[in-house]
Amino acid sequence: MSKKTKTILSLICNATVLTVTTVIITCYFVFGHELLGEGYKSFLLFTTDANVLAAVGSGLVIICDVKILQGKRTAVARPFTLLKYAGVVSLMLTFFVVLFLLIPVYGIAMQWGGRGFYNHLLAPVITFVSFVFFDPHTKLRLRDSFFAIIPGLIYGAMYFLQVVVFKNWIDFYALNSGGFWFLIMPFVILSTYMMSLFVRFIRNKTIG
């Protein structure tokens, strides 16, 4: 596959993520969130935050894709790459939490139905595929894998405080199921870092 073809596919994937995410977030504010009510409350969910982060990263990659097709660049700017990397890893975390924690509790129809089909399934797949196979890029460094898990760590700390310590939030993600947050949360953090290493490995392999 030629570099031009990959760049075009990157442009299509990133434009899809940016457009659909923008529409969904707009719908939250216009019509409300199906579980939480007011649109702004959707940002209490890591799913929403991860999708917005990935969409912002995709939007920045689009700018570089256009310049690459115009012959003005050869790769995506490194800060943009790192931002999208964090978005990809965050969406992968969402995908696996839904798959292994939420679907067993709430059912597949609730998690992968309606907007959940995009938020929990389609967006993680599109962003992963575009990031590792299509986005014009240079290799990721090992230290970049730590940057990619920062959003998850920040949300995890907030989640712990609000769910376990202050009890202001309901346990959206069942991370305190049975009171076993001290086992589940560290496992999720470790798994997130392993995902960031996996994404880095696959992406770097695609450019040899």
Description of the structure:
There is one protein chain. This protein is mainly alpha-helical. It has one domain. 73% of the residues lie in helices and 0% in strands. The protein contains eight helices and no strands. It has helices at 3-31, 46-69, 78-106, 108-112, 115-134, 144-147, 150-165, 181-205. Helix 1 (3-31) packs antiparallel against helix 2 (46-69), helix 2 (46-69) runs parallel beside helix 5 and helix 5 (115-134) crosses helix 8. The longest helix is centred in the first third of the chain and has 29 residues, at 3-31. The model has no long low-confidence stretch (mean pLDDT 94).
Output the keywords.
208 residues; mainly alpha; 8 helices
Summarize, please.
The chain is mainly α.
Number of strands: 0
Described by strand count, sense and barrel closure, the largest sheet is: none
The value of Rg in angstroms is 17 Å
**How many structural domains does the protein architecture include?**
1
